[in-house]
Q: What sequence folds into this?
């Protein structure tokens, strides 16, 4: 499993390296010749790129410089792009932000708000309705015969939160609680793996995994049985490198903050990829302290070597 993850990681980094040039270097004032923004490609990278294109053009016009979005296959590659200074701005999950902020000089500048408050989402553990697993008690009783999949290794709702919960109920993946534990690669892939019967039990975000798969008609609601859902999880941050010019970062932050008001068409096109009621959302400021709860949970996980 680790060899497979390493291979995918290597390919992702090659893509990043090939797409960036010397113009990403900062001048004496901390401003790049070209702004690079790294984004995890989601389960539909084609739709993401199409939705992000108008925003890219908007940023270019407002900043007066070239802007490039690079898309990766996983959050680990986004962390690596920050580490190697191949990107200036990055979209991270809460868990990948906690991981990145341990070693790299970054600051969260933007998150998504819903009805004026920071948006929240949930983690879900689920199974196929024909699996014979009807509860967490059933899962515990049959664990040695069950295949389990997480989503992305650096995912909060698709890995950290369900992994931590399973450990608290005596099903520690580090101690071979299951017949096999794998990473599906994404939230929707986790859902599809379970719906098809290839995997017995999966983990994913409720909103960005199960609901998207159902909304797109990839699975039917009666194919999936939810075994557990988490408490609300704090929303994902967009981060900036701390070596960037502070006024430059502030300008970028304000462009995000004003996007829903100034360019609602651009904003709603992107939000429709993720939410059924995009009009309820906007961008808002975020503080590092909002992720202390995630830090606390992550500190209890013994083996995070696959994502370091």
A:
């Amino acid at each position: 499993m680790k060899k497979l993850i390493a291979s995918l990681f290597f390919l992702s980094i090659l893509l990043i390296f090939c797409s960036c040039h010397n113009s990403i270097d900062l001048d004496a004032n901390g401003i790049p010749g070209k702004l690079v923004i790294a984004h995890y490609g989601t389960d539909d990278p084609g739709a993401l790129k199409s939705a992000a294109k108008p925003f890219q053009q908007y940023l270019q016009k407002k900043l007066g410089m070239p802007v490039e979005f690079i898309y990766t296959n996983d959050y680990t590659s986004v962390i690596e792009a920050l580490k190697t200074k191949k990107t200036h701005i990055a979209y991270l999950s809460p868990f990948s932000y906690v991981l990145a902020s341990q070693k790299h000089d970054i600051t969260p500048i933007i998150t998504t708000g819903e009805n004026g408050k920071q948006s929240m989402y949930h983690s879900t553990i689920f199974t196929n309705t024909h699996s014979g697993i009807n509860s967490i008690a059933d899962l515990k009783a049959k664990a040695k015969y069950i295949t389990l999949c997480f989503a992305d290794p650096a995912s909060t709702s698709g890995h950290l939160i369900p992994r931590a919960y399973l450990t608290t109920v005596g099903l520690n993946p580090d101690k071979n609680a299951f017949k096999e534990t794998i990473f599906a690669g994404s939230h929707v892939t986790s859902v599809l793996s379970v719906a098809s019967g290839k995997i017995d039990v999966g983990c994913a975000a409720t909103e960005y995994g199960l609901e998207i798969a159902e909304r797109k008609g990839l699975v039917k609601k009666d194919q999936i049985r939810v075994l557990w859902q988490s408490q609300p999880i704090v929303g994902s941050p967009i981060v900036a490198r701390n070596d960037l010019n502070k006024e430059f970062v502030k300008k970028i932050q304000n462009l995000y903050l004003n996007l829903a008001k100034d360019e609602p068409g651009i904003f709603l096109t992107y939000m429709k990829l993720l939410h059924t009621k995009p009009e309820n959302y906007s961008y808002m400021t975020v503080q590092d302290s909002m992720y202390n709860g995630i830090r606390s949970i992550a500190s209890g996980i013994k083996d995070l070597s696959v994502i370091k």
Observations:
- Confidence is low (pLDDT under 50) at residues 2-11, 16-21.
- Residues 113 and 282 are 5 Å apart (CA to CA).
